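Here we describe the complex-level prediction in full. Unlike the single-chain runs in Section 2.1, the two entities below were treated as one system.
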Amino acid sequence: MSAEIITIGTELLTGGHINTNVSYLSEKLTSLGIETCFQTSVGDNYPNLESVLSEAIKRSEIIVVTGGLGPTADDITKQAVSNVLKTRLILETGIVSKIERFFKDRKKEISSNNYNQALVIRGSMIINNKIGTAPGLIIERDQNTIILLPGVPRELKPMFKDTVSKYLKKKYSKNLVIKSRTLRTFGLGESVVDEKITHITEKCSNPCIAFLAHATEVDIKITAKAGNQNIADSLIADVETQIRNALGDHVFGADDETMEKIVGAILTLRNKTIAVAESCTGGLISNLLTNVSGSSAYFIESIVAYSNEAKIKLLHVSPQTIEEFGAVSSQTASAMAKGIKELASTDYALSITGIAGPTGGTSQKPVGLVYIGLAHQSGIDTSEHKFFGTRDIIKQKASQTALDILRKYLINQA
Amino acid sequence: MSAEIITIGTELLTGGHINTNVSYLSEKLTSLGIETCFQTSVGDNYPNLESVLSEAIKRSEIIVVTGGLGPTADDITKQAVSNVLKTRLILETGIVSKIERFFKDRKKEISSNNYNQALVIRGSMIINNKIGTAPGLIIERDQNTIILLPGVPRELKPMFKDTVSKYLKKKYSKNLVIKSRTLRTFGLGESVVDEKITHITEKCSNPCIAFLAHATEVDIKITAKAGNQNIADSLIADVETQIRNALGDHVFGADDETMEKIVGAILTLRNKTIAVAESCTGGLISNLLTNVSGSSAYFIESIVAYSNEAKIKLLHVSPQTIEEFGAVSSQTASAMAKGIKELASTDYALSITGIAGPTGGTSQKPVGLVYIGLAHQSGIDTSEHKFFGTRDIIKQKASQTALDILRKYLINQA
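The structure predicted for the assembly as a whole is:
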């Protein structure tokens, strides 16, 4: 069975308004084993709404409609649905008295258009709205189940959870469980990830595999359908093992495991500490590391040494090194890592120096050129990188790369 | 003329993913005077995509399609569009060489499926993608203009702004100008902002005024429609003056002026410098300050002193101060500001110490308690704050507040 979500409201079409209902409903339907195939938004416009409703009842079994149940003239949902289904609206006296009580309780005056909300589609089931005055409706007609809900998220969500979810589970759930797991990779582009695991994805339909490329990582989402939780888990685990084998340590985590959480977990486990000397990333590495709750156990201090003077004075980089090789150089990165590790007396230290742009680049040292240093028990490793993008993206990529270098060093020490 | 937006991607239909492209595009189309009548989302599913495209070309003049332009097998947009328009795909050699250069520059291996991105619809105009490898396309066919854009927001936005917007303006704009300006406020809740300017908003229909509340600020969007640019600008300017009078220095900037840009602009103008000593914000203030291009002119250095040892050793906070008043105290904040200002020899210094949570709070010093210090020419000011929210939100609110304290000090010195 497939579902379609229709969201109604002119505010959705003029922009600046994020449609959270559609994301909420899609997620809930997916978890019930119901696949959403179409999402449509239209304004408070009668002919447009009728046309999408007519299309929807032809192609989708379950149709969830949100919005347009208010008391004013531009709330046209019930009228349009009754027209498309060739039925009519009737006044539900139970709702009339509920509306009258609602206004009386709030000592507000009731206006005649409030009674519009007591009109329901003949033969429909009423979904109680505990927060507002607009009831929801469930209409079963031939092959279709049409569910009408108000557009206000704080009304819609409890109505879905308390009534619609139970109704759908009873009617449609064929003991089907849908589970997902997202593997997070770093250091490979989307097309390379695709190519490396194409032998796994191409013969795989359950679980199904989807890619999501972000600025600094490529995610692989594995979604399994099964008769129960255990079978779904084992379907996912099998594919996960194959993908991890194919991609090796490019897979840095799963689901909500960020790079900084993984690094933090290893440092905590081994009771090790870290300090950071940043130049071009301007505090972003430290900010990421300290976004993790409990990071004070391993993160000691960091110095953002933007000026050459700060590199010399705070991190004890020698003026000769900067003069001879430049502030953006492998030698300076190495000296920064040495300096902060000694200063903070930590087990590890990361350093980073580069050109975040958009200005400050030269032909020899272009925007995006970054040197990363890692000081550890047995010395200092440095590496050269070239990143592309805006200042913001270069800072993000450089920070993630530095954390990834630390992560790989730590897992190879295990 | 009416527009339809079609967004493609299975991740949109399974939930947990917010569709920001559709909101961005609707807003941009509205500002061009083009009304969006339908928004549709479908998965990476060939027959479903074909069916919505066929419907769209019947009912909408302008169709903007996002997603499905990647290199992998589930990227089906161009094939589906060419099928619906009964045309075919051809290989564009200019794009081939651009893709090859892209991979060569990044020293990455090109895979055969990357060449899919060089296929274009016969007779289409190519929209250059400066960030990624997928070009966009503009196709004019009979009554329809079909615009294909990648689904990645950081690629889509510059492509829309640089090319599509200009194209649509030239082709469709009918002497109606829609202009918007967003005033950004800090330090007041949405309902207080609303109350303070309700005498302006209630008698105002053109320009119209909308509120947008974020975690750390409340934005006020002023939108005017007029026959030309000058009239629209003067309608906006009149309301802007009234709002600024009502809200005073709570308005910190407009449009893309962030708090850190404003602070940076004042420091640059006056040729002054700043250093930062951070504890609970873990580098976020420094990261924000250095997100501004050109910040190396005024941002000298910062120290993220997470441990007490780092506060004592690096910032010269006396152990007695920490013992007597605690690391989270007005006295420690003051000593941190003094320490970093002397160390960096700057004109100003900010310091911050607090409890970001979720653990580490006590009944006397709860999660969210933060002290901020500002050292300037004539002394050190400290202030106590209590923030609510997750660790992440507390870090954001604390950082914005520190920058706002500096901003207010600077504007009062003027």
